[in-house]
Amino acid sequence: MLIRFASFLGDNGFAFYSRVAAYVGEASGLPTQMVADTSAGMDALFGEGLIEAAFGCGLPYVWKAAESQPTVRLMAAPVMPSPRYDDRPIYYADVIVRHDSRFQTLDDLRGATFAYNQTISFSGYVLPIYHWLTLGEKLHSFFAKTVETGSHANSMDGVEGGQADAAAIDSVVLDMEYLQRPEREKAFRVLAHCGPASIPPVIASARLDAETHARLAEALVNMHTTERGQAVLKMGGVRRFAMVTDRDYDDIRRMYKAVEAGAIS
Q: Which domain does 101 fall in, by range?
């Protein structure tokens, strides 16, 4: 059976996630393929049986897990090497500004322009809204203008080019950007870290039989124990993949509920 993977994460991670999918195929003995065209969206690709697995955002996962008959199941989630990740499958939304901007604190951004990737993005949109709520502020009124860019890459380009004053970037995407383009560390400053929150997981279609699902998950979580796996992980700046459960994503449910309500209880 061919296991087709897709990535719904940062564009700069596509090559890495493709290598992970290839490694999983080698390690599990199951043929794998990376699907490049994800324009139809996760719901459609899973729903129409066009993919069997995905590297996806935590928010769409909890939406799909809430279905009366969930169509996806968790396999694993990455653990990043920086000390701030505490060797756990967590991540942040890093609020970035240009390195030479006048902004020194979050409060300095009042009345500025904020870029976000998509409204369905947890790190780029929901988590920043939640963070501002914890400060007693409403993000859309705190900023004079908010702009949807379509991707984290576009948000970074917008900040660097001066079209936006700040943006919230998935910390894994930002780590990968600095790994691939070290010169870009000089382009930005991080004013704040929103989070932590449970990191975007690797999910599989519920149509997969239990044995196939287990073989794929085992290949992921044991990846760091093999020389070949370590080499692939190093390309993406990832330490390892860890087992996760549905309860691990209760924090995203809680924060999303607060954002929907517009207040912190």
A: 90-197
